[in-house]
């Protein structure tokens, strides 16, 4: 028997065709009909059947380490939350969610905390991955709308890959790019990345810029477009606003292009070659990811890129647009339901009293939150300060993944109530839990996810839940019922939640919002089970979904025009010092996922890289007396990291690269998060994870 589902790893959202055996997933292959991957799977996706099973799973509810019944565990969570709210108010409670949760899980969690508990202290690990891109889109378009689709990668004539090691982190999209380049020899690929990554194998031009100079590079491009008289005046006049202010801000940054090139750490000829290519090509896709977002000026980085597309009118038609790629399988679904502290629901936010009232009436919510809550880093700082007294972590591992993880661990240690719902039993975070709730894993879940091109796909249950595991939406709803909100959380099946979410997307909408899937408001269980992948918005005008947005030049700002955002030069916040002289870049490996809770369960995925490491260039290795393969220590006042030295020509002098995956279970001394300072983008709240500062030395100097 075969069942179609969706890969739980990256934001590409590949369709998976799972072959079921006797109580097991015998084999997986790519779903040939799924428009994201057309039958392809990368090494992570194709090993999904190897990481299942009950080994390492959390199988029963635990309170204070003791096994209890579900009823007792849920009663205890509800009781403790109610006591905390009564004593300290709604803002003393927080939820921390995950881009791995399904949209239905996210919807219910968001509804409970914002609508019924009455605080917006709900954030998600997606804050660490794409919140700067969200803020950039909202500033420019008035909405969090990805304008492009994957087909655009094949229809373009110039792919500008910025801060994205696509070959490792979105491998199926990289395969599509490779195929597109084979088919269209005129397609040019530019990679903007301080490191020479595997993605550069496809590049016609590699701009190995200094880390943290992305916005200056693109502001320079905007200035070039203007000074060379390459602006699409008709588009700018009819469909945009704020052009002059943005040009002034861009032009004031540097006295000359040579000065800019030096600032970015590249030669002038390379810089100009890129600018000429961009300006001379009508179909340009700027494809950007964590290298752009994980910066203390991540939102400005996004807008600097978007500004160049608006100035040339390169948006809204096949093969053109600024295309932010999400890292996680359901980062987009979380955004749809408002699963970030600065969102409300269905692409509405707290800036509009009318929207707050509308959502409150729709939910019949007695106590709807009125203002933004705390974002990830600030949220755990508030836990440490004792301002938040109850935190519920769902399906994520902040004790490994957030900056200054030792501080996060201390905060969790001190917090009076820590609830963790997770499918795995031994994450770093679960060690701090007073109450552990076993959640279903990927092969057991049933619901929807949305990928980076706005495509909603079904994740379908392949196997029965392990042990006593329950679905996240069920766990949250049962707690909500025990808190006195039985009517609002009376869900029996995820299709009911999806239908409610769809109805809210169109509730008093009048076509004023980008996110509208209200055609699904009355979806039945049968239709939900059979739902085929579809890109939102799904409206009467576009009942089969919408591939790309803004073809008509209409945006979701009050004026209907896209906004240029003036961007000024910004240096990273974690600048090197004499004591911490190296810039530390962090990122994913080809074969691992996040903190390895799943991918760490099969030896096959360790054959590519099997232990924590530090990449550095030959000159730095010589300077520090480090030889290939020896253990090195990275130090920072917050903590240490130990890994094996990999000496490479791919790394710029003065810069190091460390993988993000290893943690306590695999290597207690290789948590890169201990070295990152809790520095964030002031607009998006996204941590500056690509620009730490550290010292390096051989662990056992000869
Ligand atoms: Fe899964 Fe991403 Fe690989 Fe596709 S590219 S199979 S979604 S990890």
From TrEMBL:
It comes from the Bacteria. Transmembrane segments: none annotated. GO terms for biological process: cellular respiration; nitrate assimilation. GO terms for cellular component: membrane; oxidoreductase complex. Keywords: 4Fe-4S, Iron, Iron-sulfur, Metal-binding, Molybdenum, Nitrate assimilation, Oxidoreductase. Residues 1-56 form the 4Fe-4S Mo/W bis-MGD-type domain. The keyword Iron applies. Its cofactor is [4Fe-4S] cluster; Mo-bis(molybdopterin guanine dinucleotide). One of its GO terms (molecular function) is molybdopterin cofactor binding. Belongs to the prokaryotic molybdopterin-containing oxidoreductase family. NasA/NapA/NarB subfamily. This is Molybdopterin oxidoreductase. The chain holds residues 1 to 702 of 875 of the full protein.
